[in-house]
Amino acid sequence: MTNAVTPPGTPAPANTFTSAVFRPEPLAMPGGDETVLRGGRHLFPLLPRAFAGVRRIGVIGWGSQGRAQARNLRDSLAGTDITVTVGLRPGSASAADARAHGFTEENGTLGALLDVVAASDLVLLLIADAALAEHHREILGALRPGATIGLSHGFLLAHLAAEGGAPPAGHAVIAVCPKGMGNSVRRLYEQGETTEGAGINSSFAVHADPDGRAVDLALGWSVALGSPYTFRTTLDSEYRSDIVGERAILLGAVHGLVEALWQHFRLGGDDPVTAYERSCEVVTGPLARTVSRSGLAGVREGLDEAGRDTFDRAYSAAYRPARDLVAEIYDEVAAGNELRGVLLAERRLAERPMSPVGTSPMWAAAPEVHARRARREVPVDPLTAGVFVATMTAQVDEFAERGHPWSEIVNESVIEAVDSLLPYMHARDVAFMVDNCSRTARLGARRWGPRFLAACQQNVLPAVQRPADDGLLAAFLANPVHRALASAARLRPTVDISVDGSAG
Fold first, then answer.
1. Quick check: 283 pLDDT over 90?
2. Structural domain harbouring 309
3. Pfam families given for it (predicted)?
4. I want to staple 33 with a disulfide (CB 3.0 to 4.6 A). Which of 26, 328, 419, 448 is the partner?
């Protein structure tokens, strides 16, 4: 198999753009000013200009992203002459839910997948990665001349590159990639009806632009989704950072680390509930909130002197093992091995579905911990905080070394975690999220989560009693990520995501 993406270390292009419709603005980042577009409902009147030439948007698929994006686009474009139609496989089990949300055959907004593709000016391919890889020839072959291909992930282009292929000529290829799960995309959009700025950030990319209008179309798509701000990337860069991130700090590492820490606290004498609070509850609750509001450095600053000492020793013990694992994951993604694994698993899992990960003893403590939340505030455990922040920083540093733009680095490594995924994990638990996420993410978390668990048990926790590494701590305190997060914080939504206990 040839490399599925641009080789590691390839510099990303300047992360700037202009628009004939919207007014982007500069955002100061460590590598120089980048360009972002602030979203908001006040921009909705500009959407017809951004979508010029588009009369029908076909949303293909009703998974997490399809379900959210179809509804957001329909609501944002209400009153225009642009129709949003959902395309599903004949007999799809999702059709009933699509109808329940107003997409029906009777009103012309629900149809057979290939029929919707053929009738649409903008085709958003939001079906599962493996399904898209399997059926892309017939889907792309059904496109009407000049239709724009829309993606929310770089998986398809990575697959085409692995096969030595490319998207069909004559079609614009754009991407808008929300930095959060579909439920976050929809829930914060709904909150935005009453709170200006609520939403999930998105990146956008333009892979092909035959008529020169792709940037405005991608920006219009992002604004219509309710993104508070949108930054530019490439589909190669988005694919690498997204797939690596979900196998590391966004999902796989979180699962492995909290299980390792729970076992550590149990061996130290804690009862199951206390051990759960000190590990999982800290990560998904107070630690996530602290990072969201005060950045990574704010976690350490919020501890007392003894807590900082523990944090420093834990950070020192965890950083290098975490960095080694993130680098290994990155190489596996860049070589196409993770993509190949997803496609192989699709055939295997048709006969043998994945067993759940939420059956280990740790997760039995979750209901009691959740029930105690109203009665007590769990403090940040400095050992857990040091291990988690070190892992998050390790991913940040690896992405920076590989040439990703800073907007992408902080969104894929920090903001998506603390403002979208961890709140949902807090509402249920980490294991629930692993067992109910996309198949691509679930496979990655199940492969790499145990590696993080083993590294924590074998390398990190035995070393936490050693003195802190002054060099590592100095590098952490001087890390450019703090400036990047402070700059991004100016664009942070004014409200936290509202979670009702459901991750589905």
1. yes
2. 244-489
3. KARI_C, KARI_N
4. 26
